[in-house]
Specification:
Elements: H1 6-11, H2 47-59, H3 68-83, E1 87-96, E2 102-112, E3 119-125, H4 148-166, E4 177-183, H5 199-206, E5 218-221, H6 235-240, H7 242-255, H8 273-278, E6 284-287, H9 315-330
Parallel strand pairs: 3-4, 3-5, 5-6
Antiparallel strand pairs: 1-2, 2-4
Helix pairs in contact: 2-4, 2-9, 3-4, 4-9, 7-9
Length: 332
Amino acid sequence: MKRLIPILAAMMAIPVILSCGGSQKSSSEQVSAPQQQQQPVGPAFSADSAFAFCQRQCDFGPRTMNSQAHEQCGQWIAQKFQSYGMHIIEQRATLKGFDGTSLLSNNIVASYRPDLDDRILLCAHWDSRPWADNDPDEANHSKPVMGANDGASGVAVMLEIARLLGQMTDSTALGFGIDFVCFDAEDWGDDGHSDSWALGAQHWARNPHKEGYKARYGILLDMVGGQGSRFYREGYSLLHAPQVVDRVWRAAEVAGYSGFFPKEDGGTITDDHGPVNNEAKIPCIDIIPYYPYCEQSSFGPTWHTVNDDMQHIDRNTLKAVGQTLVQVLWSE
């Protein structure tokens, strides 16, 4: 889910701490955002529904590139979004992995109110890591990761929001469009190759699904269902989209989930929001957990291990992130 891309932190001249990919994190200055409504708004986000969406993705097995489970799950994701009235575009491409492997990639774009020019971007990656190379047991390092949290959780939250949007009538519809982009080929990366992470996001940023595509801002969801998760303010997000960070963290407070979104800085992380910011020029933040006291990884104890499974997904975490996003969207 996270890429430790040390180069980004260095380019940003921000102190590097432990990163998601493997070693990178930092902090940055803040910019105050426009004041939000001070009352909870929008429908109730169902954690049970999001949990079921997460489980369904895992039922296919690890969604590693070029696998049957990957292809089948991709079809299911597209069909599920479509069943809620979203317009679907599948952006298929053959991408090259750091090891020379040809990766059959599919960025799945599901659009709410595609006719509108005023848009907001929500995104997450849906593939899973082919190697559990951070597992404490070296015997597991060649095994694939199920990716319940690292991949499936972000897509699950987006699917639940799409379900809520699909229930709205013409009179209650939001006055702007939303694009749910499920990035592929995010987790086929290697720390020795700084540009080997987030391949699907790189491809989309250079070849958007719609010519001249623009969005007000973007929110990336990465590992948003893990037990014990707390979402600190990520440094790259603060650098490129401080007002969006402030908007989301205020929304969490209004929705009653400030405990999950501490107003503290985490680290600078190499992730899918990098290409969105740098190449697509859309201010995009990353909602990603930070475990400052976890010895195994600042991304938590299950990151890139065989234990990234449904037993370690927490409905309370899904609810906190999902209801915060509802607050953001319905208060626009």
